[in-house]
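Lay summary. Proteins are chains of building blocks that fold into shapes, and those shapes determine what they do. In this project we predict the shape from the chain. Here is one chain we studied, written as its sequence of building blocks.
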Amino acid sequence: MWVPTKSPKLAVAVFNWKGDVRSGLPLEIGETVQILEEHSGWCRGFSTKDRSAWGIFPLCVVSVRPCTVKGSGPTAIAELKDDPLVREIAVVLREWARLWKKLYVERETYRFSAVAKVMRELLSGRRALLAGTLTQDQTRALRLKLVAKLDWGNRKLGLELVPRRGAAAVEPEDMSLVELYRVHVESAERAAAWRGTLRRAGGSGSSFNSGTLTNTSLSNGPTTVQSHHLMCSMRDFGHTAGGDEAELLLWLHDARRAQPLSERFRVRIARDGFSNYVDRLHANSTLFADLSTTDLSRELWLVAWVVRVGRWAGAGGGGSGTGERRGPVARRPLGAGVLPLTEFLRQPVQGSTEKEYTFKVYQSEEKDFHQLHDMLIRKQTNKCNVLPGQPNYGIVVALRLLTNAGSINEAVASGATVTAKRGFPDVIMPGDVRNDLYLTLEKAEFERGGKSTAKNVLATVTVHDNTGQTISDCVWGASGSGATLYESLVLYHNNSPAWGEQLRLTVPLETFTLAHVRIEFRHCSTRDKNERKLFGFSFARLMEASGATLRDGAHELYVYKCDDPTKLATASYLSLPSCSTDSARTPTNGVVVSFQRSSKENCTISTLLCSTKLTQNEDLLALLQWRARPEKVQETLLRVLRLGDGLSCEELIKFLRDVLDALFALFSTEDGNSTPHSGTVFLVLVSICSLLDESRFQHFKPVLDVYIEEHFSAALVYKGLLSSVQHCAEWAAGAEGQEPIRKCLRSLGAVFRLAVRSRRLFARATGGQYEDSFRRDVRAALHALKALAQHPHRDHLAPAQVALMTSWASVAKEVASALGPVEAARVTSSMLDAPAASSPPALAKARLAAAQDILKGPLGQDPEARNIVLTTACHHLRVHLARRDELSQCAEMLSELVSLLWKKEDPDEAVDPDELDPDVDVLCLNTLDVLVETVLHLIGGNSPVLGSMVADLLGCMELLRPAHYQRLWSHLAPHPQDRKPLKDFLMRAFLVFRHLIEQDVFPADWMVLRVQSCKVLLSALQDLAKPLLERFLGDEPPQFDSQLWSGYMELGVALVTSSALTPERWAGRGPDRPRMRAAAGLQVLAVWGRLGKAQLHLVPGAVGALLEITLVGELRRAALGALVSLMAMEREATGSARRTEAALVDKLDSLVADNKADDHYRRLFDCVLMERVSTEGWREAGAAFVGCVTRLLERLLDYRAVMQGAEHRDKRMAATVNLLSFYKNEIDRKEMYLRYVYKLHDLHIASDNFVEAGCTLLLYAETLSWESDQVGVDPEYPETPEWKRKEALYNQVLQYFDRGKCWEKGLPLLRELATLYEQKLCDYARLAHCLRTHATFLDSILTQLRPEPEYFRVGFYGKGCPLFVRNKQFVYRGYDYERIGAFTQRLQSEYVAAHIMMRNTPPDDSIIANDSQYIQICNVKPVAGRRQWGSGAPEQARRFYACNDVNTFLCDRPLHKPPIDKDNEFKSLWIERTTLVTENTLPGILRWSEVVSRSVEEIPPVEFACETMESTERELRGLISQYTADPTRNINPFSMRLQGTIDANVQGGITKYEQAFLTSEFARTASPREAAAAAKLRRLVASQLAVVDAGLTLHGRLAPEDVKPLHRRLVERFNQLRQNLGPGLARARRQMSESIVNTPLPPVPQMDKRSQSVQQNDNYYEDGHLYNKPIYSLEDCVEQRPESIMSASLPLSGEKSDGDDSMIKSAPPLPSRPKSGDPRSPTRPPLDKYRDSLDGEAVAVETRRHSRASWSEPGDAPPLPPRVSGSARSWTEMPPAVPRRARDEARGGGAGGAGGAGGDDARDSGVSVGAGLADHNYTNAGDHRRHHVSDFDLTVESLRYEEIISMMSEPLRVDEGETPPPIPPKGLGHLSSFDSGHHENGETNC
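And here is the predicted shape, written in a compact code that computers can read:
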């Protein structure tokens, strides 16, 4: 039986358990479970991850842990009772692990590695915390380090900032929102400081900046004083002292002031090394104590002196030899080293760890030893060198900075020596006693005394009293233990020794007055081991004759000669002067001494006094000893009063206790009466107290506090103090000197505190006598002060009033203890209520600060007193907030007030909604409205107080209860008819709160604070609805205020959609965010439901609000129900729901654009809305509308999916057109239609699609009328009339058509504009401009070069394609010069996941039903529309309309039908022709159009041959016409076209046609259709021969000199072609008088290494002469249109001559085609007609045929023509042509690879023809025209041979497993596909 546990237990799974039993609860290692019941080793409970799933599990798989239980019963929650930081690290690491994997997937290597490192460190730190083996200091440091790493990782991974105090995370429910804001600020500062820089914490776009951090952090009260201690431990010493012992002296040195900061610490080193002295842990460690923050900021160095202790070595004292050691033992300088501490001291104190450092030791000459460390610090190393020893080794020390008292005590207890600072710490408490005199033995000067060598001087320092007795153990050469005497360093043979040694003299206070220090000088001989001969001495008295201590600074002492030590025993020399400032004294024992002083000898010392009992100031000394000379008390007081600067003030503060005791003794007599000096004493007292208010003495304030509480004993001075304050206040207005009064007012707090303390001492002694008298005195003083505060403003009184306000908080505290808090509050209120209208800013600021400080004190703790002061403070706050001044101080004061009034709610205690907190009521009524207005003014700016001001506003809202809101509504609108103040407040509040939510005033990662803010606003949302429902609700305006209700709805929606409440984004601390979000939505819907018919007044704004709420899953049904109800209500009221439906469409568009919906939302929207509509009476209309909206959502989601990225540009255009069509055709929303017209226009402009952009704007222009003057038709141009907007659109479109070179489309627009300007406007200026533009367009049509675009059929198959292209075919218009390879690559970059289909066959069902994407691409040929062209129509216009304004396209695919003749495949080459009709003509608003119809037919082989011949002839006729009209054109295109027609080199050309279709065998088997086509073919061959004949004649006349060899070559080939024609063509055979057989060959080439690779290197041929390149490489230029090639070469100026006209006239006329049935047998003219005899020598041109790699068999290549011998020519003039592929994809293919100017295909046939020709621009002028050839009449018919070449090649064979694209047929100029569907570069062609 299950037994419930007494209290819930918490356990952690230590094994994985699958839960494979009935009701089992699966567990994973580390999972936490709560146990509620137990039974026989089994437990029943739930996992803390999912509290709703209960189950059983064995007890053996879990480990029960200590826990704390919150609540009781089934709802009790158990939490692990472990370290919160340990638990937080575990939770954070689980969350980081998920994001860490994402970093790996996204290839963010740096962040991945950095986060991994931090995760390992967190795991290690967590183990250390759990082990519990660290000390408290180590634990504290580790916790801070782990917290810093947690914050760093959260920031790097985009997680929220965890607010902390120290290392512990705060609970947001346990503090006010203002306090939570402060914690966030501190946490952000700490995180920024740990990163090494204080960056702007608010992030981009946030109004929170670093000013907020600084202002807030610096205002949290006075800074605390903290002393630091530097732990220094000697680790090793890498040198030896030459066999002697050594001393190492360490101290801290201030390099900037060039003086020591601390005493010296001595480490002794044995003869054989340092390690012998390491006997315990801290034996060689010291603690440099009492370092202030200022000291740490100095340029500190650790200085080390190495001193050798031993006898002299050898004769040369400076050597380090091992000879005999003589002379007495002496301390000799050896070396010095320095270590900079700046970097070490910059580390954070909390994380300070011990670090080891090594620094080298340098040595120099002994005379410079005293300044060696300064030279090293200044890097003056030219006079020193490294001490010999181990290389790169020296002194090793370990440093650690300590602040914790426990660590310091631990170090001292373990044996570390404390080395004191040379001077006082920042604060000297009254109980601290110190009496040290620091003496530095600087230098001395001695005479040589007749000897040849200088002395080895030893100075011995001792302290004696006036009788000569030695004071023992008072001389300290270093920290540790004192000695009776100190021996200085001995410098070898130096009469001017400079020692620089520091000593500390600790003389007892009772003997200090009569003590003096004596310095004896001895000579240390290097011969005698023990001789130290005295030769002189100096002395200095520690106390001057005036009684003051020896002054700080340098003192130059006299040196007296003496060689007998016994003469010094009685100190008889004290009657002598010690230095030049000292005077002779009367001998105390009557003995006259006779010590001779040497005028040339002296000794310099410097002293520094560090004493709390001895002073060097005579005035202060006189005050302390006033009883000795009472007659001079007044003079002494006045001198003390004048102590005002520098060291004098420090002396005054240093002896504060003694000074105050003396002053109070002088202030009153023993019976409490005043003395003659009372007034002066009071001035000195307030002067001292005012000194403590200065920033430099802030640290000494605790000294005065301790004195008053523990040492003050003047029980009778209170009456005198109060009367002095009263007199001071009364005299202030008329006094001329205001400085004493200001000091008094600044010190009022201390004075009242002394008075109250004195009264308590008196009452304790007398049993409370004279209490009423004391109260009267206090009230009298307060009355005088109040009169001063309320005195009419005068310039000279303002500083005094500011001083009074500054000290009033401390006065009020003492007054409250004397008179009670309520009376003190009333006095304070009257003080603060002084007239503030004309107050200077300083006084107003002081009043605010005073009010804030008063409320922090005891008056703020008493409810009645607090309410009194709070009312006055809020009045001042309101004034300053309204004037927008002192905002920083106002924000700080508001923060204090909110923190003071905030109370944590007890969940077990019932809250009375009618309970009214009077303090909150005061704050709300006085400040809330003006605070809202101030925040509204600050939002959107970059004010540093915005963050704190917003926190204050939210904190005030957090304090309010329903009763407070009711009071506020009554206060703002006391009368129902006066609603304006209430409306203004509510409008501002709605606007401010919405801005707070939407603009993210707080940084994005402050999610805890942002969620708490939303919680406050959610609570306020309920209360803000009440005045709306009570006072602003009605069926009609003005009772119903739509503006106010819209603001409320917008606020509610902003709260519902707030990013802070998005559970998917943030899952951190704080309340349940989804629950809060749902509560906000339900509140808005509940208020909306109470509006009733008034809802119609909020359309369309409310529709958007309701749609926003539908984004929340749990609110979707309710919000959609409200939408349906609104539509029903509108239908009931107006008969239709047009307004609601329009608003719904508009808002859906903006919602999807803002990325706030998805396909799942669309389905739910459709389903839920249809379900709700189906229950209404208008369900048919509603269902139609829902279907329409659903289709709109589909299109909007398609559009949003492609909104970003250049690769989605075409998809974006298609989606835009879909939306544009929907808005125009389905719902007729002109404004939305226009919006997407502009979007499509912008997309086209960004892509340089100017023609399409113009067509897009025409869509809009077509909706406008020339007759309308209506304005506002275009929201972007609201003031423009309709006809003017249409005119502007037309002008814009004309610019686009001009840039897109589509002038034909602009002509109708220009005619419309001309009609407008001429007939309606009569504006002839604009008409003239329009006509000029018209003429310019016409000129451009005739003269400008325009590339003909290519068109591509694209099919999209598969379910993976977007909906708007899926299983559809489109015809795309390519860019200029874009061929199929580039087009395919562009399309594939847009559809990255698509597979390009390599064959052009229709796809099967498996591809269409596949989930992938498949794309099929091929070329198509446009079919020009039927136009009636006149006889004079320009060719340019015909060419334009041949490929523009088209919607019909042809797609040809070659296929072979049996029987197939391998020798002549033309016999079986059928063409499958597909005709495609698109929806729109191209170009249009898009560069593509969908195919709407498709038809297929098959073309017989003979008809295709006729089409080929017609195309070739048409092109030749066009070229002849062009060159006849303009002989100056570049002749290259003409030459290449003729060469491609005559000299076709592949598979026979006309001969193949003849063999296939012009034979008797074909005539017998041909059908009537084929027979008619064969007859037509016969006529076409004859006609083409005639055209070629005419072309050769014209070419011979136009050819320049260097083209003549080519011309002769063409004539030879043409004659050979005619000779080879069969009898079927009725050829007139004529024996050639000269054929190619008789023409000479070019010279044999030189076979060198270059010739071996000539066929592999196209770039081998030089660029000089045309014939230096292969004749068959001319195809490069032919592929362009003839006009484009001809325009590439312009005639040279000055070349045109009179012979031009005659030459043009002499061109032969084109023969007309023979009529059918009248075939004529052409005759061959004599060869001489074709010969050109310009140069007088016949040069035969070698011709060579190309063979390509795709012949059927190697032997099937056509034979080369026979060669005959001829004159030798160089190799470079006529090399064999190199077959090439894929060279010219950017051009349309020509016949034979050379004449493809009219072809539309970019494929290469493998035949390379004359690329060099295109590289030279030849002109046909000058001397070429003086030669004439007689006219002749040609009737020979020819065949376009080159366009059939590639058709006769064998299709490419493809190996299994490999699908390389075959070489496409070159000759099919107008074909766009072939059987295999492949093209080059793997691209598909039809």
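What the prediction tells us: The chain has a mean pLDDT of 77.
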